[in-house]
UniProtKB/TrEMBL annotation:
This is Transcriptional regulator of anaerobic genes (FNR/CRP family). Residues 139-213 form the HTH crp-type domain. The gene is fnr. CDD domains: CAP_ED, HTH_CRP. GO terms for cellular component: cytosol. InterPro entries: cNMP-bd_dom (IPR000595), cNMP-bd_dom_sf (IPR018490), Env_Response_Regulators (IPR050397), HTH_CRP (IPR012318), RmlC-like_jellyroll (IPR014710), WH-like_DNA-bd_sf (IPR036388), WH_DNA-bd_sf (IPR036390). Residues 29-108 form the Cyclic nucleotide-binding domain. It comes from Geobacillus kaustophilus (strain HTA426). Keywords: Activator, DNA-binding, Transcription, Transcription regulation. Pfam families: cNMP_binding, HTH_Crp_2. One of its GO terms (molecular function) is DNA binding. The keyword DNA-binding applies. The lineage of its organism: Bacteria, Bacillati, Bacillota, Bacilli, Bacillales.
Amino acid sequence: MEAAVNGYFPHLRSLLQSSKKVIPLRKHSFLFQEGMPANELYLILSGKVQVSKICPDGKEMCFRICGSGEIVGELTLFTNDARYLLTAKVIEPGEAAVINKEELEQQLLINPPLTLEYMLWISKHVRRTQTKFRDLIMHGKKGALYSTLIRLCNSYGVPLEDGSIFIDVTLKNQDLANFCGTTRESVNRMLNALKQEGIISMKRGKITVHDLNYLKTEIQCEDCPADICCIE
């Protein structure tokens, strides 16, 4: 989503890029975890970070995967006793630029274009989260899986000559289960049903969607813009 950051948030991205603090991202380490004080905002320079929520029953619900150019932080950054509500785990090593919330707050006070961009960024995150919860609440596990497949097509899809979409990212069934907030066994059953119906096919951990319209129809897709309906 680097193009989105360049196109819609140039002031915010520029501020983060000018930060003197750059940290290494080591695989399996954390930028932050649930409950920690929310003090910083991050710009992923390279590598990938998975943002997720650990449910009370121990299940992990993944919200998005952030790559180069993506901003990672919290909507609660400026609330009283701000705490991170989600966990950001490094799944591919790289680097991130970091800005402290006090410095960001000072810049927001004197830079109206930056303030507007920050508001737009928050608004986009809220809209992304709302659409994901809508699919989960209205259509349950099936809605969550179908929505995830559609989002993967928007984020990593490669159109093929026959009209199918090849999702060019390797995901284990447990990874899909984390996106859906359900069990690997449930995802296995739903994927097998889709394969039997010819809606998808799988090879070496990668999925090809042969009938995207079927998935959209099943969850009454509202055809949100790709920058909203995405994994990143």
